[in-house]
Amino acid sequence: MDVENYTTQQVAQKAGVHKDTILRWLREGKIQEPDRNRNGWRVFNDSQVSDILNFANGSQGSINLVNEPAEVYEKTNPASLKIAQLHKVDWDFNNANSSYLTHSIHPYPAKFIPQIPKTLIRELASTGDTILDPFCGSGTTLVESLRLECNAIGIDSNPLACLMSRAKTHVIDEEEVEILVNLAKDTEGLSENFSTGTLTLFGETLYNYVEKHKFKGVEDWFDQHVIEELSYIKEVCLRIENLRVRDLALTAFSSIIVIVSRQDSDTRYVRREKNTKPGDTFKQFVRALRHTIKKSLEFSEEVITPYKAQVLQSSILLPPEIPPVDLVVCSPPYPNAYSYHLYHRTRMMWLGMDQPTFKQDEIGSHRKYSRKGKNAATADTFRGELYTILSWLTHMIRNNGYACFVIGDSTLKGERIKNDELLIEVAKGLGYKVEANINRTLQSTRKSFNPKIGKIREEHIVILKNRLN
After folding, report:
1. Cα 429-433-438 angle, rounded to 5 deg
2. CA-to-CA distance for 369 and 433, rounded, in angstroms?
3. Cβ proximity of 280 and 117 under 8 Å
4. Which domains does the chain carry?
5. Pairing assessment for the beta strands 130-133 and 151-156 based on DSSP bridges
6. Phi then psi dihedrals of residue 36, to 5 deg
7. What is the pTM (predicted TM-score) of this model?
């Protein structure tokens, strides 16, 4: 006799509650987590459904949960109590898991851990608010905003960051999962018998596609068989018609490029041989794609669908038009810290992204601030950029809304620059009220591109209040 299984939506209908209520009960541990089907979706059996119905009827009485207010993160405390609460937080988050949900589907060095935006949003925003990250990077703030029942806007000049952010915040459905599952199966079959020069694609030899996807210097960084396998994978990904599914597939593709290249790591742009064998690139892609599917399913089952994330590719110094926002949470790039265009160079080349333009737009890059001569960037350069950004934000943040910056110090020409003090100086001149400047210790395992920055083990959480509007 077959056991009947039920989806989360079906269970919610039986219990007379909204699907989001079932998900909240699961998060809070009030009901048992069910098994999942082959695509990773939750499936409840008759016994579990019965337990949920008993819980709904016994624990909730006559309350109409379908229309219940979303009260978990609703704030009733005065502003001063919110800030006081933030001072009580242990911001070091030692040993915290930062790879849950879609946060782990693509490497992105020096990103801030999700516990930081989660805590700031939880204390300073209310359900339905719009959260802005003007330097959204890999989308950490956007993911946490959606989890906390807020809308999100992310801006970044890095096209690879925008790809990752779109992928990480997409709520996937059954049909889209099936497309990715089939792609993983098809690619897995290729990995077993691959040898260079034998593969065909869509009835043609792979040679034409390899030539199509080649770029200057590709042979310096990749073995020939790796070039063939990456060309095949990229072409198949690009032929996916559903743009959001394509984003997920290309994000998985991008995530393996440094692994199968001769680049030492995501934080070291030097060459070394890795002995990548024929077929290994296909295997790495299958592994990455299945991880992406799993994490996307977990994210999609937790997020409440009315809330959306918008990702905009733009230099924040020439910002796009956006609606007013309730809260800003970001970790801006700061002088001499990282050169994202350099360490993502091979990824951007494979994805056909405009690396020279991003290199020009990048704020705070190590190359920009390590130049010599009259064109060298200085602390005053960064001060001017902060003025432009903060001035724009005064018109974007609602009256009495907060802007939270996670920022570290810099070393320029041997001198330590206190970027939090520089930020506060500019903010006060524009009329912001400084609500807090909280220190946090960086974990000793955190890697840095720049050895001098690697010695700095502290950063600051600066919280500003917009008082101009």
Report:
1. 110
2. 30
3. no
4. 8-67 (1.10.1660), 79-171+304-339+364-465 (3.40.50.150), 174-301 (no CATH)
5. parallel
6. -125, 150
7. 0.81
**HSE-up (13 A, CA, CB side) for residue 223:** 18
Give pLDDT tens digits along the chain (469 positions). 456 889 888 998 899 887 778 877 887 788 988 887 766 678 899 999 999 999 988 754 333 333 333 333 334 445 667 888 899 889 999 888 999 999 999 998 878 899 999 999 999 998 899 999 999 999 999 999 999 999 999 999 999 999 999 999 999 999 999 999 999 998 988 877 666 556 666 556 566 667 778 788 888 889 988 998 999 999 999 999 999 999 999 999 999 999 999 876 665 656 677 788 989 999 999 999 999 999 999 999 999 778 999 999 998 888 899 999 999 999 998 775 555 656 788 899 999 987 666 555 566 444 555 556 566 667 788 899 999 999 999 999 999 999 999 999 988 777 888 999 999 999 999 999 999 999 999 876 554 444 454 456 789 999 999 986 4
- What token pair was written down for 173? 């459905």
